[in-house]
Every structure is written in C-alpha cells, then in structure tokens.
Amino acid sequence: MTRKTFLASGLLDPRGLIFLAILTAAAIAVPVFSLLVPENSAFALPPYLVGLFGKYLCYALLAVALDLVWGYCGILSLGHGAFFALGGYAMGMYLMRQIGPRGVYANPLLPDFMVFLNMKDLPVTWWGFQHFPYAMLMVLVVPGLLAFCFGWLAFRSRVTGVYLSIITQAMTYALLLAFFRNDMGFGGNNGLTDFKDILGFNIQSPSTRVWLFVATAIALGAGYLIARAVVTSKFGKVVIAIRDAESRTRFLGYRVEIYKLAVFVLSAMMAGVAGALYVPQVGIINPGEFAPTNSIEAVIWVAVGGRGTLVGAALGAILVNWGKSTFTNILPEYWLFALGALFVLVTLFMPKGIIGTLDQIKARRARARRGVEPAQAPAGE
Amino acid sequence: MDHQVVTSTLLYLDGVSVTFDGYKALRGLSLTLAPGEMRAIIGPNGAGKTTMMDVITGKTKPDEGDVFFNGSEDLTKLDEATIAELGIGRKFQKPTVFECHTVEDNVLLALKAPRSAFATLFGRPAPGTRERIDQILETTRLHDHRFRMAADLSHGQKQWLEIGMLLAQDPKLLLVDEPVAGMTDAETAQTAELLRAIAVDHSVVVVEHDMTFVRDLGVKVTVLHEGSVLAEGPLDQVSADPRVIEVYLGR
Ligand SMILES: Nc1ncnc2c1ncn2[C@@H]1O[C@H](COP(=O)(O)OP(=O)(O)OP(=O)(O)O)[C@@H](O)[C@H]1O
Ligand SMILES: [Mg+2]
User: Fold this and answer.
1) Interface predicted TM-score of the whole assembly (ipTM), two decimals
2) What percent of chain B clears pLDDT 70, i.e. is strictly above it?
3) Cβ of B110 under 8 Å from any chain A Cβ?
4) Which of A105, A122, A251, A287 is in Cβ range 3.0-4.6 Å of A115 for a Cys bridge?
5) Is residue B106 within 8 Å of A7, Cβ to Cβ?
C-alpha cells in the first residue's frame, strides 16, 4: 500500500492549503495596499473596495457554514440568512450602545430609535450589550440557541427533505416579520445604523475598515479549519453517512438526530459570526437581512462553487457576489433573473459546481491513466 | 407492564401483527431463536420476511404482539439506534453501503466503538482498530479494495461489504436479508461459507429465496406465508410438506 494515512484524510489537503495561502496573502496585501501605499498611487486600494472585499469574505463564511449542513449532512437549509442576521443584530446592538450620548437625542443610555418611540427604559434584551465580550458571546449563543430549538423539534420528529427546507424558510420569514415590528425593540424596519465606533476605533476610518477586513479573513480561515476538522473526523464520516443513507446509519446505532443537531448548531454559530463581521463593514443591519431570498442566494453560491467541498462554497460566494456587484452596476433590474439563470445552468450542466466538476475531471483522468474500467453497474433487484 | 418474559431464547416473537393501510403484512407471527442458532427463513414474495426484520430492528412498530430480545428487552418500545446498540445488526435486502466512503471507512463506521457524537468528534480510534479492519476485509475478500469508494464496487462486493459491516458491529444477532440476490453461483457458494463461519460465534437469521444456498447453509428452516409461520424444520422435511409445495407451486 502506498497510502500511509490510515483513518485520516488529513486536515489540510493541497486545495485547502492554496485556499488558506490566498486568504493569508489577501490579509497582508489589503493592509499594505490601502494603508502603506500612498493614496494617489495607482496601486492604492480605495476604502470602498476594502469594504466590498470584506463583505465578500463574510458571505464566504456564511457559505462555508451552509455547506457544512447542506453539502455534508444533506440538510438543505433555506433559512441560514436568519442565523447570519441574528449574529448581525447582536453586533449591531453593541455598536448602537457604543454611540452613547452622541446620538441625535443625546440620550446616554437609549439609542435614538427608542427615544423616538418614547421608550423609557432599556429593554432587557439590550442589557449587557455595551460590553464587547458579552455581545460576542451573544453572536454565538443567539443563533446557536435558535438552531438548537429548531433542530431539536425538526430532527427528532424526523422532518427531512423538502419539508425541512420549507420550515427553515418559514423560520426566517417569521423572524423577518417579527423584526419589522417596532415593539420588538430592535429598531423596526429601519434596523440599527449610524454606528460611530467599534472597540473605541472610528468605524468609518480607513484603518478600521482594513482591520475589519483582516479580522474577517482570519474568521473565514478559522471557520474553514473548524469545518474541515469536523468533516475529516470520524464524526464527519458519520455525518456524510447520514447524508447518503440515513436509516442505514441508524441501524448501525448512531443517533442521527443528535449528529444533525450538532452540525446544525455549529453551522448556525458560524453564520452568526459572519453576520457580526458583516454589520460593522456595511454600517447597517435591518430586517431585510432575514428576507428568504438572502438565504436562497446563499444556497446558490454553494451550488455554484460545489457543495461538499467547503473551499468551493467560499469560492462560489465570492464569485457570485463579485458578479452581482458588476452586474448590478450595468443592469440593476435584471440581477435576480441572471441569478436564476445561473442556478438553472449550474444545476443542468455542472451539478457538482466548479470545484466538484474539477474533481470529476481529475478523477476521470487518474482512472484513464491507471487503465481501470469504469465502475460496474449494479445488478437489478 | 403485565408481561414478564423469562426465557432462554435470544429472540422471541409472539403473535406479532403489522397492518399497512388495511393490508396485513404480518398476522400473528410467532418465532423463537435459541442463542447461537442460525435459522433460514424462506417464503414467497410478500410473505412478510422483510417486515419481520423491520419489526425486530425497530423500524416498524407492530400493532400487536410481543418482541423480546435476550429474554427481557422489549424491542417494540425501543428505537433503531438503541436496538442496534443492544446487539442486533442488519443487512438490507437492497445492499446499502455508504457509497461516498471508502471500503475501509464503511467498515470503520460499523466497527464496535462508542457511537456518541462526542466520542466520534474528539475520540481517537481504539488500539487494534486497524488489525480488526484488516481481519474483516480479509474474511470478506475485500482487502484489495480497501481504498476504493464503495460506490465503485460490484454488486456482489457490496453485498459482502455489508456482511463485513455486520461482522464489524459484532452483534449478538445478525439479520441478513437476501444476501445472495444478484450473485453468481461461485459467489453464492462463498457467501454460504462466510455465513457458516460467522454462525460459529453469532446467532444469525438469514432470509433467502435461493434454495441451493439454503441447502448449503444446512440449518433449520422456517417457512413464512402471508405473514405467519407455515412450517418449520429441516429443509428436506419442510420441502416435502404438501402445504409448502402448494404455496410455492400453486401460484
Ligand atoms: N411500508 C409499507 N407500506 C405498505 N405496504 C408494505 C410496506 N412494507 C411492506 N409492505 C407490504 O407488506 C407485504 C410484505 O412485505 P415484505 O417486504 O415483508 O415481504 P418479503 O417477504 O420480504 O418479500 P420479498 O421476498 O419480495 O422481499 C408486501 O405485500 C408489501 O407490499
Ligand atoms: Mg423482502
């Protein structure tokens, strides 16, 4: 046997290394070209591009989170945008409380929208959010808890397939409606905005934006490594087994619902982190982030990049969003049609996505080289 | 519970009935299996053989009747994972292996080891895992295919891999549903040999249509028909039974 690796596919494969190398290069290049290169130089990176790249990386992290549940566990979540948005709101609440008396109404405790709504006291939900560590904890806990409750009910009653997808979609839609309401105390349809600073740094300044970008790159790298560690462990093998033959896995003695729940909660937390990094970079969070179309777009990114590959999910998110930025500059009304067409084309001609198709070609070549016959077709029942 | 079964049997089914949309798939099925016994189950299509396995493994809950394992475990009250952990392994009629995993990983997942999410996420493989997998792949003649994807195996190889996975589980009782369907004669003979070797230290229930194969096994036979037991005994005696002949030929 030439292969020495027993029972471990290895945390880092060549593709993962390339991905992390590019990410590292970006995390170094962006600060260099936007802070060190003089502003009027041709190589200078304008701040708006830094923000745009940072946004792409947040989407990439959301895509990796989604790939973990969809690509590896077969749970097609059409509501992952909800976890992203909840993480975003947790961060937004921290940023709101950092404004302090600098708001229009100069209320030291209450954010402007609360004063405007004649609220007298800070709602309990907002307590503690002036502390950064607490807010960061909530970025993980709130999406995680929602995923836990949702998953507990859904997976235990063995809801799968289309039905599960539909209720995830209903979940994000319900949250959309709830967050639109002023009496929820999260800023209603205006959401949370007009942030001033984060950890004492001016949120508008180019250097803060650069460091937010770097933080996002690190979070994406870490998210990728965690996801990769999970899917290459024995736990991950069980999860893939569940995706391919759920009841078989049960008959082997694995508690399928617990495994699904664990993956779902982890994925929701990763999505929450992505949302939390997104909000300071775009400067606003509003109920629109719960829109079902957001969750569906995320599914398309993963499908385009190649599900069950992690790197593909990140790549898909970046490519599709880069396409979206370009496209909406030229023909803003037609973006949704273009996205729909892209999804149909990928499903028809590249069902395994970009990375999956590359893998297929590689495998076919390798097989041709070894002169192995194609897999024998299974005999009929 | 008013029913306290204390028997020396490993598996005890009494008066088990299952109805699907008004159709009685099992009607008062009773069957017992002694520890260490191997039993062949035959019966025409739709006799309820697979349904019986579904009931034993917790996939289908019976409308009435008792199902006990090891004398006191009431299988009608437990779910699939718990029953598997009690020591009942199953090979499906349609071979179901994990297609996206290598042959080695298929066996690894089946191998007797802690099943909790925590253990599989943070645990290390127990010492001797590799040797155990080697041994199973040797027994099932899949050693040369260790690193192939299960999806790339031939039909017969998939059947064997599934038997190998059963071995890896090391259950007290193995339920094997049509292990030689779609196999060549040579493969069939090898499978009979394999099952006999397994039966040395396991209890086994084999469902099969192939009479040559059942003869090769050389064990007590139970004939199912329309959801209940029609005859039981050595194959020669059973196949001489006019009612059995009627069921098989009268159609
Ligand atoms: N889930 C189900 N829903 C409805 N009917 C079912 C279900 N499972 C089995 N049946 C019916 O119950 C009867 C017994 O089926 P079963 O699969 O147990 O037969 P079998 O003896 O295994 O037959 P075969 O030799 O064809 O495998 C059949 O008539 C089948 O159509
Ligand atoms: Mg059957």
Assistant:
1) 0.88
2) 96
3) yes
4) A105
5) no
DSSP for A318-367?
HHHHHHHHHHHHH-GGGHHHHHHHHHHHHHHH-TTHHHHHHHHHHHHHHH
- Number of A to B CB contacts under 8 A, please give it: 103
pLDDT in tens, A325-364: 999 999 888 888 999 999 999 989 999 999 999 999 998 8
Q: Which of A249, A251, A376 to mutate to test the interface with B (most CBs of B within 10 A)?
A: A251
Q: Residue B250's pLDDT band (boundaries 50, 70, 90)?
A: low
CA B71 to chain centre: 19
Q: Closest-lying ligand to the alpha carbon of B51?
A: 1
Q: How wide is the angle at C-alpha A217 spanned by C-alphas A296 and A291, nearest 5°?
A: 20
From the list A277, A272, A266, A269, the residue with the least C-alpha distance to A216 is: A277
Task: Map tokens 């992203």 to a residue.
Answer: A84
Amino acid identity of residue B44, one-letter, is: P
Residue A168 pLDDT greater than 70, yes or no: yes
Banded pLDDT at B7 (limits 50, 70, 90): low
Q: How far is the CA of B138 from the centre of ligand 2 (A)?
A: 29
Which residues in B lie closer than 8 A to residue A380 (C-beta atoms)?
A: 182
Closest by Cβ to A250, choosing from B81, B98, B181: B81
**Cα separation of A307 and A303, whole Å?**
6
Q: Which residue, chain included where needed, has tokens 């898909």?
A: A316
Q: Which two tokens stand for residue A288?
A: 């629109």
Q: What is the pTM for the complete model shown?
A: 0.91
The Cα A261–Cα A244 span in angstroms is 17
Task: Name all residues whose Cβ lies below 6 A of ligand 1.
Answer: B 20, 23, 25, 43, 45-51, 93
Question: Could you give the CA distance from residue A191 to residue A92 in angstroms, rounded to a whole number?
Answer: 9
A1 pLDDT exceeds 90? no
Q: Count Cβ atoms within 10 A of the Cβ of residue A48 and give its class: 0-12 exposed, 13-18 middle, 19 or more buried.
A: exposed
